[in-house]
Every structure is written in structure tokens, then in C-alpha cells.
Sequence to fold (198 residues):
Amino acid sequence: MSTRIEPGVVAICGSLRDSSRTRIALKEALAASEEAGATTELVDLRNYELPSLYAVDTDVPDAKKLRETVDQADSVLLGSPNYHGSYSGALKNALDYCSRDEFEGTTVGLLEVAAGEFPGSALVHLRTVSRTLRAWVLPNEVAIPDSSSIVDENRIKDSGISERTHRLGRELALYAGVAEYPEQIPRTAVATDSTTNH
Fold:
């Protein structure tokens, strides 16, 4: 995690398609993060050479670059298309190159884009992976159904889903560093709250 005044939000796009609707949705979320005062970066896995983990015996420079980017982030947004009820192999492989060292204590947001009517299963799987990596996963998440009709080449057209995506982007900025929050709350305030709730 970085020590910058502005939180750093990184989005990892799990789609390798040039016309990826996942990428478009992630960009909307990052724009909202910037409006909330964060610096942002989109990790486009098309630009990374990441062979299947342990497929080569030599060091993988782009894997080191990915780990460093995630390690420096205050918040990470994981975005993936829904492939056969789960998240993409490209994102799985990228996450396999990372560890708890990069993710522990990091605020994580989740976004899924599906061609069909019933998205959500990929989010469940990504939430499990993120918790295993000891990240702090935001309760708000975004599942976009029927993406061909809801996301065009520039934006999310559905106002409700667009607002939910923007909210996720804002929360990635606002709750960056959430793992440190208990240390920032005065003990007297905690004691007062506990006595008034009985």
C-alpha cells in the first residue's frame, strides 16, 4: 500500500477483447474514483506477457510489474466478463502471479459483465479469492447483465447500473486504506458508542 495523500486506485481488466465491455465499465468506475480525489490506473492485460503460472522456468518481467502495481495501490478493482459462470482465465492467471504480500489489507472492488441475463456468479468467486488474499472487499459490487444492450462502445447506457458503477468507483477512493481505520478511531469514542448501544 502506498503512502500518498491521494489514494491510488488500480483496475485490472480480465477481458482480452479489443472491444471489451468490461474495459468500458472499468473506465467509468475509474472516472468516478478520480472525481472522488484518487489517482487511477487501468491494468490492461492485453499489454502484459503472462504465460500460465509455472509454464516457464525463467523470471517473468511483466509479472513483477503487475505485482508492483498492485502492491502500490490503495484500492484494486477487479473486472471480468462472465465465462461459463465464473471469471476469465486471463484474470485468474494474473491473480495467480500475485500473493497476499500484494493484496493483504488492500481495499478491493468487484465488477462483472455478462452477455446473459443472470450475472453474479463470477463475483462470488472473485470475493472468495480476494478474501483468501486477505483483502478488504467492498460490500457494494456491480453485475452487468445483457451487456450488448446495456454497454455501448463508450459508456454504460442503463442509468441505474451506471450509478452503481460510479458509486463503486467513489467507494474505492473513499474507503482506500480501510484496513487502517480501527487505528484511527479514538478508544474513548469506541467506549462511548458501546455504552450507548446497550
Summary: The chain is about 45% helix and 15% strand. Confidence is low (pLDDT under 50) at residues 187-198.
